[in-house]
Write a structure and sequence with these properties.
Number of helices: 0
Order of helices and strands: EEE
Oligomer: single chain
Strand order of the largest sheet: 1-2-3
Strand content: over 45%
Shape: rod-shaped
Structural class: mainly beta
Radius of gyration: 22 Å
Distance between the termini: 48 Å
Length: about 70
C-alpha cells in the first residue's frame, strides 16, 4: 500500500491562563487529501500485471475544548 499526492494543513491555537500558565482552551482544524494505491503481488493463477486498487480520500477534523479544574 502506498499514499500518493498527500496534502493538507494543520491549524490550531491554545489560550493560556496568565495566572497559572496552564492551557484553558484549545482548538485545532486539520485537513488531508491523498490517493491510496494497493497493489497485490502477482500469483501464479493471475494474468501478468497483477491487480491493483486505488481510491482518493479527503477528510477534515475539528477539535475544540476548554480545560478547567477538577472538583
Amino acid at each position: 500500500m502506498r499514499f500518493e499526492n498527500l496534502s493538507g494543513a494543520l491549524e490550531g491555537s491554545y489560550e493560556l491562563d496568565e495566572a497559572t500558565g496552564l492551557a484553558s482552551a484549545y482548538s485545532m482544524n486539520m485537513t488531508m487529501e491523498t490517493d491510496m494505491v494497493m497493489e497485490m503481488p502477482q500469483a501464479e493463477i493471475q494474468p501478468a500485471g497483477g491487480s491493483s486498487m486505488s481510491m482518493s480520500m479527503s477528510m477534515e477534523t475539528t477539535v475544540e475544548g476548554t480545560l478547567g479544574r477538577a472538583e
